Amino acid sequence: MKKLFFPNIYLALIHHPVINKNGETIASAVTNLDLHDISRAGKTYGVKAFYVATPLKDQKELVERIVEHWTKGTGATYNPVRKEALKLISVKESFNNVLSEIEKIEGISPKIVVTSAKKRLNSIDFSGFRKKLKEGAPHLLLFGTAWGLAREIIAQADYTLSPIMGNADYNHLSVRSAVAIILDRIIGYEDH
Amino acid sequence: MKKLFFPNIYLALIHHPVINKNGETIASAVTNLDLHDISRAGKTYGVKAFYVATPLKDQKELVERIVEHWTKGTGATYNPVRKEALKLISVKESFNNVLSEIEKIEGISPKIVVTSAKKRLNSIDFSGFRKKLKEGAPHLLLFGTAWGLAREIIAQADYTLSPIMGNADYNHLSVRSAVAIILDRIIGYEDH
Q1: Which of B34, B169, B172 to mutate to probe the A interface, most A CBs <10 Å?
Q2: CA distance B131 to chain A (A)
Q3: Count of domains in chain A?
Q4: Does A1 fall in a domain?
Q5: CB A16 within 8 A of CB A26
Q6: Contact flag A127-B176 (C-beta cutoff 8 Å)
Q7: What is each CA distance from B167 to A42, B136, B155, in whole angstroms?
Q8: Chain A closest-CA separation from residue B100 CA (Å)
Q9: What per-residue confidence (pLDDT) applies to A120?
């Protein structure tokens, strides 16, 4: 029987540096539904904050406008439940800014965990990650947009989480679906 | 240890009849990312087909155009992996048309399972649903858009699946996230 627990976990969705289809480093555009879906999943599984990292001025403003609409604007009155989720979002210039924000809150650096379709030396599986979280140290779980996180970000990770496999030879989930499944696997407490 | 298995399961996303915020029956608009995210999750977990039910002519055409772009158009060449997922999609006029299509394929009616935030008499939990699937009979898992499936659809269900709970007093996931987590819980084979 799995036990209910409350991990010290942060999420970040990285829009730069990520790679495109050809392996080149780019800054990707923000997707509105990433903000909604990931913050709602984050709220469901007790995540402490959800950082959206982008260096692009117009994209930062876009995220801030969306968050403001749902947390303070007419969206907040129309759908108060959505407000609770969107309140988790903070926009940051870069991955380093996310890190220093968490260091300020926690007083120490979080352990960094990245998701990747490839098996790596510092791989950790879902039950291993769950065990680490139960020890109570702060963890930052990173997700990439476009074709994934750039190598320089992956190089800074303490752990690389195993890829999600279903029952088919296909693992090309959206980042929104991947976040939902990973949070459920590492934090969910229902047996099934 | 969970075992790998291949269930006989179909998904349908219902756009009518669903309810709005005030409990009135409406036909909702199709969301592009529902098509992508749910078909990709369906492909990951070996779902046999993903039906998108809407009676609205312009919405049916929209879905058909999107599916054609990714399965036959330039999208298919740009991203062949996406093509494999979107091929699961069929547009249907109504829930009844989805049912008769599955009856044609399977020779019998599928068991109908709905998701709901409320506990009901015919409730089934995730491990109970997994057991049913292992027996091999065809199952149709229904998801509602907007504020959820109308009562007349829920009344036709053989089972109502337990709501997804994380570790917080908040269960307001997007339908995209809910589909991903449910498929992982009932079909996924990794222990965590």
Answers
A1: B172
A2: 10
A3: 1
A4: no
A5: yes
A6: no
A7: 10, 32, 30
A8: 27
A9: 76
